[in-house]
Design a protein that fits this description.
Blueprint: H1 2-14, H2 17-20, H3 24-37, E1 40-54, E2 61-73, E3 78-87, E4 90-94, E5 100-104, E6 107-115, E7 121-132, E8 135-146, E9 148-150, E10 154-165, E11 169-181
Antiparallel strand pairs: 1-2, 1-11, 2-3, 3-6, 4-5, 6-7, 7-8, 8-10, 9-10, 10-11
Length: 182
Amino acid sequence: MKKLIIILLSLWLLLPATQYAQTESLHHDTAMEHHFQTPHFRGALLMGHTLITPGNTNTRLFVPSWGLDLEYWSRGKWGLGLHTDVEVQDFVVLNDNEEEIQRNEPLILTLDGLYSPFHGLVLLAGPGLAVEEGEHAMLVRVGVEYEVPLGKSFDLFPTIFYDWRFDDYATLTVGLGVGKAF
């Protein structure tokens, strides 16, 4: 069911973007001006890879991940985002006591403050939770993305963000997303 929802959302975001690709250069300036002058919501779908760096080991693990974001941008350069990510693979990490912890497709929820110091660049930071089978762990996220307009309301954005999880390991995610302002 989770995969079906992700597929449907990706089609909703990706298919209409093709009609705007040819007019990107004509609308670049007006799209960015609209972004800063008009309060709006923005939804985005993200596909990425997450580097898991557990505790005191030299082990590194790459896990595929999907994200779904909902953001509110006020007038100006500030916004607030609810960012959700699912690491779509089971994996094992070691905590500080060298105990194995099984992770089963954890869901990550963060509430991030957003700041765009200039056109396209977005800095983000905020607290969050990693939720899995009734358990949860606190985390802090920091990241950066760069929005490239695709017409009046769509954008393509590379992103990188770091999650420091309080339960002894950290993750670094690199991804590519498609967003739609509404």
